[in-house]
Write a structure and sequence with these properties.
It contains seven helices and two strands, in the order αααααβααβ. With 135 residues, the chain is mostly helical. It has a two-stranded antiparallel ribbon.
Length: 135
């Protein structure tokens, strides 16, 4: 969802914009090119770690919370449930989150599976035993 992507966009901007700036402030007499390269590498590792962990926690915590949906799903009027319509556990939300990697593999074919299943479940929903339904 586009809305969910914007949740971490400000953090990504700050992390990427800070590349090299802190090094310049601390050591203004140093070679900017070398410092930029080093800080860029460190920032990329930090950004990947923070954004991955944040994305993982955001999706799993929101979908297993009383809201049962991310902000994007809430805006669309959808919720994530187990097969009986109950709130999913944090463990099941984890399975759904990491199952999206499998759904994304090979040209997102795991998402296309939803078009051919009775309950309109993508592959990651089938693997985690979840449904995305309209409220």
């Amino acid at each position: 969802m586009i809305i969910d992507g914007f949740v971490f966009a400000p953090l990504a901007v700050v992390l990427f914009a800070s590349t090299g700036v802190f090094g310049l402030i601390m050591h203004p007499d140093q070679d900017f090119g070398a410092m930029f390269a080093a800080m860029f590498g460190i920032t990329m590792i930090a950004a990947f770690t923070v954004l991955f962990a944040g994305n993982w926690l955001y999706h799993t915590a929101m979908e297993s919370s009383r809201y049962r949906a991310t902000l994007g799903k809430l805006a669309m009027g959808s919720i994530v449930t187990d097969l009986n319509g109950n709130r999913i556990s944090f463990a099941r939300a984890n399975g759904r989150f990491f199952g999206k990697w499998i759904s994304s593999a090979v040209f997102n074919i795991g998402y296309l599976v939803a078009a051919f299943t009775e309950k309109k479940q993508a592959l990651h929903d089938i693997l985690a035993g979840c449904l995305v339904i309209q409220k």
